[in-house]
Amino acid sequence: MVLCGLAAHPALADWRARTIADEALKTTSAYGRLEVLTDTIGARLAGSEAERRAVAWARAEFEKDGIAVRLEPVMVPVWIRGEESAVMVDPFQQPLSMLGLGGSIGTPPEGITAPVVVVTSKEDLLALGEQRVRGKIVLWDHPFVRTGDEMADYGKAVVHRGSGASDAARLGAVASLIRSVGTASLRTPHTGAMRYAADAPKIPAAALSIEDAMLLHRLARAGHEPVVRLTMSARTEPDREGANVVAEIRGRERPEEIVLVGAHLDSWDVGTGAIDDGAGCVMVLETMRLIASGPPPRRTVRAVLYANEENGLRGGRGYKAAHRDAMDRHVAAIETDSGASRAVGINVKAGEGAVEALRRMMTPALAPLGATVFKPGGGGADIGVLGRSGVPIMGLLLDTTRYFDWHHTHADTLDKVDPEELQHATAVLAAAVWILADAEETLPRGPIEPDPAPGEAEESGKPAATGRPAKPKNGHD
Amino acid sequence: MVLCGLAAHPALADWRARTIADEALKTTSAYGRLEVLTDTIGARLAGSEAERRAVAWARAEFEKDGIAVRLEPVMVPVWIRGEESAVMVDPFQQPLSMLGLGGSIGTPPEGITAPVVVVTSKEDLLALGEQRVRGKIVLWDHPFVRTGDEMADYGKAVVHRGSGASDAARLGAVASLIRSVGTASLRTPHTGAMRYAADAPKIPAAALSIEDAMLLHRLARAGHEPVVRLTMSARTEPDREGANVVAEIRGRERPEEIVLVGAHLDSWDVGTGAIDDGAGCVMVLETMRLIASGPPPRRTVRAVLYANEENGLRGGRGYKAAHRDAMDRHVAAIETDSGASRAVGINVKAGEGAVEALRRMMTPALAPLGATVFKPGGGGADIGVLGRSGVPIMGLLLDTTRYFDWHHTHADTLDKVDPEELQHATAVLAAAVWILADAEETLPRGPIEPDPAPGEAEESGKPAATGRPAKPKNGHD
Predict the structure, then answer these.
(1) One domain, residues B86 and B58
(2) Same domain for B254 and B307?
(3) Is A322 exposed, middle or buried (0-12, 13-18, 19+ CB in 10 A)?
(4) Most buried among A117, A312, A354, B152, using CB within 10 Å?
């Protein structure tokens, strides 16, 4: 009867959202969990032993909180970085700071030594033509230009990471280097996923630090032809079994209707995956704990800590494959994969009027928290496939001013997380999930779109909560 | 006759200082020279092939400008970093970001694997006692606390880099790690010089990135005993011949009186020595070019680009040994070794009333440039020995807000230098040197002090222009 009363009074539902948020703001358990994940498991690339330990840890965390949890197996790619280095050998000997790109092949053991040709765009490369590219290492010195919207800026900056190697290989290049896609550097390389096109030879691909890319570019402009030796023992092994960690709080009135809240449990193999996306995982764990601490919402809340977001999106695609028949019953999905800073709002990709509906539903509980931005956007990398089945997908928007200083680097470590900001982001996420799961109203469903071909979908590693309008066929989301 | 006119009118001398500064502000040749030094020679540790090339380059630059130049040989230590790595092997496997400290011995080829004990001070270490230190790796997790005066803050932060290894070894430690001494980090280790005390066993010494020091400290606090494997092939080879590059503009009236302007040509073996101290070297080159472009000043201006500031101060001590009989004729020495940002003033260590005298002499020309800070200070590492013979020593004070983000790291590269700020610092230095060399007045000489024992003087690597009062016996200056 109490439950019915709760459901009957919108103001009471908002009050419950606010108590959830208040509790999140008061407790430090999100940070405590993140400390354990990053300090005692650390980097957890798909297919690694550490990823398996992270899965076991996440399951145990849900169990400890009394939340029903299961593992849903998915096969994940196994890319192993191995030893790697780059050194400029002419006009003088200078070690270059680099990271291989995920998915790259290795070089011969003695490395690849070749002159570098610098381009800033694909037009640049095509203008050079095969004669000036064949036998060379192509360096894409394409900068990250800040305009105040980091997610949109990242989208423009990252274009050559995925496709640059194949673009260069089609003209006979022997390796491809990018300028790291980041907003700060202390000789800091940023890794990320790349993919090979079917119509191009496979050549090794790596990221140089911004400083090193600038050095090679300056030397080229000054009339030198810098020569670089790139050595990588990267390799891909057969797929291994990984798992999505799926936890659930059964709804009290419409348990068949599902509100999904997701983050990804895997990370790159450098750093310890604190902001990408350990923070998201602990926000989801906390969201479930907080919602479970009172009467359940109208609908079922399902948490998914995805496998393999970074270099394959197998978790996201595997979830959809396993739940294909239940797409109509997924009334909403929200992902948090943009770091650990204060939340500013939510973006959404759904049917006509979704932004306004979201604003109407969320404002009473979120405006007092300062989360007031509601806008169209891509949701998240893992839940993009759900959006193609019409599921309204959302991304938690955080302050990303410094996110790309650390994204995909050795520096993605716990110390970058401010405990209070993490609590704030958790509060907004938990309140939003409660509202999505308890509100009478649901968001309008979006159009049905075809899923991308597997090859296309392999390009991932994009942060989830982009402020850009959804681009359904770009293989990102 | 023109020259006599110039000398007779203080206002005209100030006018000349201002035209020198104006010319420095207009020309980009300082940055152009720095680009060549850092982009085509790069890191140039004492005793290296690159240092020899830097010496030849500097001599040629002076010659190109028509300045008389000579090499004054000094023997320099030869420390070779070799291969190095650190990895936490328990409670989980985590590569640590590190740099060996200059002067350290290596480890056995298989490395040293031992539990880590974390201390924040020497008191901490002594309180632990031999029983809890023997057989361990000591980590000095002593932070860089900013108070708004980076040079003073650095002085407090760096204390364990030099002496920490011997302090730890006296209690039986098998290796010593410090938290990097810096103000920003993207897993960025900062190297620097260390020294072994005669009464302690020699153990390997390295710096971890701030993040890695924090990780080990958190784990220790959480009840773990992290185990680290440190592997270093560092070694010291017999001294080799290096050289101070000495250039001179002969004074028109008192050529026997010398105003020395210095910077150091060597750098650490990481980064490309742009801010430490390539920038200082090109400021000195430009100062000489600008002064030589008109009638000479009253006194002789002598530029010294020192060898081996970073890990031995052999250049500074060698210069003094070679010119011991001329100390009385050195009326002033000024060093620039604090980066490449805007100049804010000059510090001085000399006789009573020196600060006021300096302010009086410099204000007409420097105040219009915004350089208005005149205060007591240490001068510079290379010229400290001159100060002990009573020579008034000065340091060019720059804006050091970001200096310790990059100091002694892989990230000390050209892109950190703003060409216009470098021009501003050059303008202030050149005007100041002109004034010191041309003014009727000279600064009061300081007291005579004994030179430090060679062992003491080996601790260098401190930035020159500290705002702290001079500490004549601390082995730094």
Answers:
(1) no
(2) yes
(3) middle
(4) A312
